[in-house]
């Protein structure tokens, strides 16, 4: 990270910490909401040696499992450690964002605004911020973009593959990343990063596809068929359209 980006990133980190400490966000609240109970169930089962997708159903992709099992330390309060893990992922995402902005040579003012908005997000999103594992794939995806704009194409595409294994939405960035990388690599060298993406994704998914193919397939079906989450952008657009009588939400 350049010296120019360190001060804005440090300020954004302090703002992020303050926002996560707000009562309605709940960094210091030992109680969980939303899916933390489900995460704890998955984490404790993995900590006791059960294999996801084979021995029990897991709703989420294989790349999400580290975020669920790491907080399941012996004798630990799962919710507390889960929130700490997500907070650290969010803080690391801010660092990656600072690297991206510095590499793109944006102005100091624009950098402060962008980092500030990212740091303020928990205050707007509320408890879902630290009670879901979304900062984990967000960190992996932002790290991939930071590596991409830094010219580390193989690492970037490998991280993007890991992000896709954690939550499917980063796959949408693959064609954009290729369009960004091809002019720098040349038309004859684009296959290497693409292979890195496939190998990273495959290395995470393949073991579970071998051990529990039916469970993994069913998990993917559940993810692809379920409705939009209420806090997602798509659901927000549909809910707004509903309020204006342009859509019948159900």
Report how far the terminal alpha carbons are from each other: 46 Å
Order of helices and strands: HHHHHHHHHHH
Radius of gyration: 19 Å
Average residue-wise pLDDT? 89
Into which percent range does the helicity of residues fall?
Answer: 55-70%
Shape: globular
Biggest pleated sheet:
none
Q: Report low-confidence residues grouped into runs of 5 or more.
A: none
* Total helical segments: 11
The chain-level structural class is mainly alpha
- Tally the beta strands: 0
Q: Roughly what fraction of the amino acids lie in strands?
A: under 5%
How would you explain this protein's 3D organization?
The chain is mainly alpha-helical and 250 residues long. The protein is 66% helix and 0% strand. The chain has helices at residues 3-20, 36-47, 65-69, 78-103, 108-125, 135-149, 153-166, 174-185, 191-211, 213-225, 233-243. The longest helix is centred in the middle third of the chain and has 26 residues, at 78-103. The chain is globular. The model has no long low-confidence stretch (mean pLDDT 89).
